[in-house]
Design goal:
single chain, 6 helices, about 45% helix, alpha/beta, four-stranded parallel beta sheet
Length: about 190
């Protein structure tokens, strides 16, 4: 297993990586910038979309033939934030919502090739990425274990923690109701 940071198919060729040997692709793109959707810098939003949406999309396209040949899997590391949009983090939330939609589309495209596409959702994780967040965080190992268990069970979606389960469940409520909880806490 290797952790390789790539910026596209050209990087794979330049680094001489043998993508034919890949059986599991983990798309864990994560760029974040805080700011209002109405006043935040659009350049930051463009950069987040390039990293969080187009990066995983390109990686999946590059590795799809190898995953199909091996009957492998692709894990799309998403977030509970795909289902709500806090005022200070709307652009990031939009990228995760787009990544969720992309994951669902890729699942449909890869299903006939025998590739499992797993959407992995969770709240805040105790990593450098969430260093400035004061709320409840789960351990990174909890995310990894949940994903591995999901792969073993061939689960197309894994909701790691209470935050992701509660947020997704709230989507079936009245329109906007799931946002009230976040808007109420944003003002306090």
């Amino acid at each position: 297993m290797s952790d390789v940071s790539l910026r596209g198919a050209a990087d794979i060729r330049c680094k001489g990586l043998r993508h034919e040997d890949v059986t599991v692709l983990v798309n864990n793109a994560g760029a974040v910038s805080f700011g209002s959707l109405l006043t935040g810098p659009l350049d930051d939003a463009h950069a987040m979309f390039r990293t969080n949406v187009f990066g995983p999309w390109e990686m999946t396209r590059v590795f799809a033939p190898a995953l199909a040949a091996s009957g492998g899997a692709m894990v799309s590391v998403l977030s509970a934030i795909a289902w709500f949009s806090p005022p200070q983090n709307g652009a990031y939330a939009a990228t995760k919502a787009a990544a969720w939609s992309l994951t669902n589309g890729l699942r449909m495209g890869l299903e006939s090739a025998g590739v499992l596409v797993q959407g992995l959702h969770f709240g805040a994780v105790d990593t450098d990425f969430a260093a400035g967040y004061d709320g409840t965080k789960i351990a990174p190992g909890q995310v990894v274990n949940a994903s591995l268990e999901g792969l073993e069970a061939e689960a197309p979606e894994v909701l790691v923690d209470a935050e992701s389960r509660n947020t997704k469940a709230a989507l079936s409520g009245a329109p906007g109701e799931y946002l009230r909880r976040f808007l109420g806490s944003a003002g306090s």
